[in-house]
Amino acid sequence: MRYDAAIIGAGAEGLAAAVTLAKTGRNVVVLERNALPGGRCITREFHPGFRASPFCDEIPQIPVEIFWALDLARHGALFAPSPISTALWPDRGISFRSGEVPLQAEAAALAKAVLSRAETEIEAPSGYRFWSPAPRGQDPWPADSWAMQSLTSLLGPQAGDGEALLAASALEGSLAHPEHAGTALHLLTSSGCVQTVGGLQGLTNSLMSACLAAGVNVSCGLEVTDIHCRGDRIAGLRLADGEEIAVSTIISTLDLKRTFLSLFAWDALPGETARRAGCFRMNGGTARILVALDALPERPRPAYVNAFSGPIHLSPSLEGFGAIYAAWRSGVVAEQLPVTVRFASTRDPRLCPPGAATLTATVDGVPARLFDGSWTHEKRHALLAQVLDAIERAIPGTSSRVRACDLMVPPDIEQALGCTEGDLAGGEIAADQMLAFRPWHHPAAPRTPIQGLYLAGPSTTAGVLGTCVSGVLAARAVAADLRAGALR
Amino acid sequence: MSEPRSCDAIVIGAGPSGLVAASYLGRAGKKVLLLEAEDKLGGVCAAPHPSGGNSPLMLYALDPFVVRDLKLSKRGLHFAGRELALTGLREDGKHIVISRDVHDTAASIALHSRRDADTWPRFRKELFELARAMRPLWWEARGAWPGGIEGQELHAIARMGAGSWLNSWFESELLKATLCFDSVAGGLSVLEPGSAFSLIWRAAQEISGLQGAVLLAQGGSAALGEALINSAQEAGCEFRTVTRIERIILEGDLVAGVRTQSGETCFAPLVFSAVRSFQTFSQLLPPDALGIASSEAPRRNSPVAEAGIVLTLRSAPRVTGDAMSPAKRCIIAEKPETYAVAEMAARAGALPDELPIEFVTMAGAASAAPGEHVMRILARPVPRNPVGGWPALAPVLAARVVKSIERFSPGISGDIVRIVTMNPDREERESAVSVPHMLATAEGRVRTPIKGLFFCGAGAEPVPALSGRAARIAVASALAVHS
Asked: What is the interface size between A and B, counted as CB pairs within 8 Å?
């Protein structure tokens, strides 16, 4: 059977791309390395009776237009309303509803504007030459002025607890020095995150159902090991079991480094492409801890009675992030790490047995490569103890209720999902790797220097600010190019 | 109280920038009053410097137009060294020497990486092409952002950290670390946008014509001070020392004159401020003027700064495997990451463990006593306001710097006659660097929201520098409007 396009990775982006292409009448196959589809959007049992989404609890927004284009509602996707963010210190705490804070609302509006800008970029000029930038003057992207600002300068000179909470939610999942210019862009990524009912698996299930309805072939357990080129065009791909698939269009939802540096023969890429892919910076530094609790701990204070329904950032301080980032760059685990706790079962009781609770902790500033070697059993144990201790200090009574826990450090996440350095954000969020400059400074967004290869996923601007958007955009670019005959 | 007087223009601060502005105004036939708070003219170029000798200040490419227009060469300004090769030191003596000669440079890079040696000519060519494209914006009062391919490329580089930009060119850590030293001026991190652009600014300085990027005036910076004072005097400027400004007087959003702390009032339609913009806005303008000026957020100093050290030595210093002649600018830094880690430590108020250092020795040329040699050292990044304060930190810094240089120049600590440190908290110069400031037009940097009030100091340069260019542009821009 001959396919019009192959999609690497059955995560939300891959599945969304497949549905979009299939609806234009194309014959599409999705190739997934793991045994089950979903990528990061899965929910699994980590202890008998306890389920959690191992990689993340929240995903970036899905624009309404794409939600309806993919017909996700009909396939059962239910989104939970945006939660309350809380910051807890041992002696105090604050919380606010997302959208309540003007700066966060502004960030959310800008993120939306960026996504629609990314959409206009897929109308690439025909006959473009990839590495020569378009000489025409381009309008700056929305939020472009934030690319030169630091998070602290945007938060203002009188930084208090509220600003520390905003910074903590901005830097969750991608740590940076908040005083460095360009870190204001991190605010975009934290705005408008959503959860799905039934854990993130809920989204995957509805996308799979949409795929089924559209006639997409989703093949799991098939790892793509090589992409063949003829000149600078895609000629086909090879699977780990040796099978060859002849296909001239591929959408990769892997990150930029993985796509270019692991799927191509070393001499197949044009030199400039390999060089630029090599220079792309990853920023992996997030560990995840899944905890099964016998019961929900006491709420710390009556004032924070709603706190358990949203993310709880533990003891954030603006100065602290700088020190942690400095330690992380040197391959050292800082003494105080930014920890974000979510009582997933409070919002979704089906995730655990009645009366019990599941807790997930996102820990940043965890180096993928330690200065003194690999992540041994002892070092993992020490990290786990450190984080549980930090949780106990902010929410007393947690540690005595722990029944089981599961820790994943960045190399584990890399192995499970194939993301370089375990960076779920798909690359450092910085002025030169964001907006019009992600992954490269080039107007033809999902397209790459290899004709027939398209990039979706977190290494694109749309992929880091939205869910399903980069997949849909890549599919639209493919459809447009197929229609125009550019790929024949 | 004396009678109010009036003149055509007032210049606040008789440092090099103020003197240049006054000279240009005087030559345009204006009646100029130059006010200086200290008891002598010249500012950082005044002699004698507190260090006992001359200021360790290096002159970064004095604007060639200033040198020509003010005839500074005829006034006794000569340069002792027009070219100081940038040298990255290594303990085994395999230094990287970056000079104007592309082939010599490539040969010394080839000791570390054959690939980088091949890349060097391309990098140098591109660097200077980009610098040339930026020059109209930086050099001319009405320069515009470059269009075309260069403009697109510059937009991308403006967003890059020096570390990642150099990573995209080279593999040798020593080469990258050596080039990085110039990128972190003004408290930038090599990770931050703007640091790559600082290298382009530096290259633009280098091609500015008369001199190399780094040069030392013969007779130290006092010689420059004297030449400038001479020029301003000849232009007919009136000087007033030990005169502190209390307020700049406004009439609506127009400048009207100044009042001194001694109670004197002087009216003038043009006022040029060579003091820092933050100080000008917060201290010199009347409080009710803040409404007008609030659109202009005052730029503060970065918490990260640089410290100067002057070593007086008994004999001419040498480094392992190399004589120091011809004069070189030596950099001690292992890799770009050294700067990144050091900047974050300095930001947190600590002296970095591994401190990037630049040192220059010029046997004979620097004005030292007979038989003595002066080594000028710059350490950056260091904290501007360290935990515990500078008086306690200065000896620690000096010891660390000497120990670091000792690794490349064994025995130097036994040769030291005198150590003078110049702490950054004493520095009056403006230092914060930001990309929007670098990308602004020259007129945008010298103008203020108050009509008739102009900046002419080092802070009005894209990267704070002593060049006189801002003063030249400020005067040109003011005379164009007010003539």
From this structure: 77
